[in-house]
Amino acid sequence: MDAMTFVLFGATGDLAKRKIFPAIYNLYLDRKLPESFQLIGLGRRKLSEDEFRSQVAQSLRAFSRRPAADESAVRDFLEHIGYSELNVNELSDYAKLASRIEEREQRFVLPENRVFYMSVAPELFGTIVANLQESGLSRVSGWKRLVIEKPFGHDLESARILNASLAQAFEEKEIFRIDHYLGKPMVQNLEVLEYSNPVLQALWRNRYVANVQITAAETVGVETRAEYYDHSGAVRDMFQNHMLQMLMMLAMQLPKHSTAEEVGFKKRKVMEALRPLQHEGVETSVVRGQYTAGQIGGKQVAGYTEEPGVNPASTTDTYIAARLWIDDYFWSEVPFYIRTGKRLAGKSTRIVIEFKDPADKFSRTNETTAPNLLTIDIGPEAGVTFQLNMKNPLNGKIEPVQIHTAVDEKDVPEAYETLIADMMRGDSTFFAHWDEVELAWQWVQPILNAFERNELPLHTYAAGSNGPEAADRLLEQDGFHWWHDE
Ligand code: BG6
Prior knowledge:
By secondary structure, this protein is of the alpha/beta class. About 35% of the residues lie in helices and about 20% in strands. The chain has 15 helices and 17 strands. Strands 16-15-14-13-7-12-11-8-17 form a 9-stranded mixed beta sheet, with helices on both faces. A hairpin with a 3-residue loop joins strand 14 and strand 15 (about 385-390). Helix 1 packs across helix 2 (about 50-65), helix 1 crosses helix 13 (about 415-425) and helix 10 (about 235-250) packs across helix 14. The longest helix has 19 residues, at about 235-250. The chain is globular and about 85 Å long. The mean pLDDT is about 95. 6-O-phosphono-beta-D-glucopyranose binds near residues 218, 237 and 349. Belongs to the glucose-6-phosphate dehydrogenase family.
């Protein structure tokens, strides 16, 4: 792997502590970092290099999937870590940073390969990129990459403005937009499941599929993020990105070669084929929900509007369910139901493919049978379950049976590890590309408008339930129901 300098904005923040440093440390243990690797953490705080390194060491002890028990490995790792104080608005601070990086590159005769990772509030992306350009930091003789985290904008227009500001200094192929769902092993497995199983490949289409259900249920509430969440809601926080990315990965036609370009192209095709919501009306296809007080795991929890920091009159969606149609050759007439919410009965992200029933009842006994189901559990437990029908020899009745395989996730790299390693190699297959992000905003924009104008009923649901009943009716209208609800 190429030698590089990794510049981390927001290095003293929560994401760096919980995810980024533990991920890079695990890559280091797995020898997946280049020989010559230097990370410079940037933050507003005045910290000595030693103080910063001991903060990093603490975060490894607390959050690394492999305990940072080996003190000598931690010490060696920390040798690669430096710190600089930087005010993101202060151009002279960037100039100092540039001299520090250039000095090292010259001393060790390193190529000018630079990663700029923005683990900061998105409002700062534009300023930072402008200053990177102004200071010359982003003019390199090697390669440069920009890594950003969602949210990529607040709506279609702001996303376009943000993208235009990034594009001033970085080409699209240099921008790596992290959507951590794309780093989840089972999301990466979707393409493989279809590709490597001709049986599934043959069935992956409207002729055999009755409907598809994608659920991301969480038990946590708004936690300490009210300030952000109350302005975002489930539609921006989960739906526009993670949920639509899972939809794309599932519904895309298999690319001939699994390259970043081809996967990006196939995903874009899915988004282009999504039937725009105006045609059917947001009201008939979308359910908006908000949790009220209830019990989770035997514990009483507060309702959303009683949470600290939330506006007591808030109409923010903590739950959204929607019916989508992909008007292409393979998926037309198959409803895709997507839902996500906070404070639901269980934590689980899962995809269910319900296959069509046989045309007739089983002729000898006149029994109806349960549909075949392919359930793909993305997390927290990963696995695949296939439901078939068999005759029970004890009572002679046809009954559904499950064939289940759990994926052993012990020692499996975390999403951030996989994604950071891909980025370092320059592979953007499992990143969100601008076309997809823009089309996703375009698709959700009518929902954002309708929510903002309060045009949709706000259904409440008790914490610990499966969400509002209106979401059940969404499927009942089509003769279906959600599978696997608790
Ligand atoms: C984040 C959202 O992107 O994803 C959070 O901002 C959410 O609100 C989280 O809790 C869910 O991720 P995971 O991996 O726990 O399903």
